[in-house]
Description:
two-stranded antiparallel ribbon, five-stranded mixed sheet, single chain, Glutaredoxin
Amino acid sequence: MKNLSLVSLALFILMFVSVNIQATPAIKNAGTQINQKVPEISALDIAGNKQTIQQLSGDKGLVLVFFRSADWCPYCKKHLVEINEWNEKINNLGFNIAAVSYDSIEILDMFSKKKQLMYPLLSDQNHHTMKSLNVLNDEEEPGDKHYGIPFPGVMVINSEGVLLYKYFYKGYKNRVKMPTLFKQLQNLEG
């Protein structure tokens, strides 16, 4: 009986540890390496104009957010609205925000206006930006419905175009926590 109790306890502990390990999101090593110059982006704003990192940056730099879709991804939609709530605070630190997806300009325009976003959404339908920044989701193959989506995440690029901070996760449910990002920005030298 005592052995059965010990085996039961051991199985419970093993199951608990296994569940907790699976609940912890896996960090994805995507994107340009920290302290390296970031390749120029090749994405269009909702007016169809090509944007550069320099054009999008504030005095200290740019918070570049990567999201799957403002059309079909509920986690992305919620996160984009949350980011909007932090936009002014982040701008006050000297950083501007822009968010990139593979969505069409029309989808991004409609979402941006509906949610009254105060930062630009950028379309990377040709995937050049996702590929050059090494954030293209490699779980999707060319020809797949969602080919072209990035790994969800964020890059903080200083005014010189150098990557200061990045945060990417595998999967689609996890996003950077805005209070955590805000604290990181406060601690960065742009």
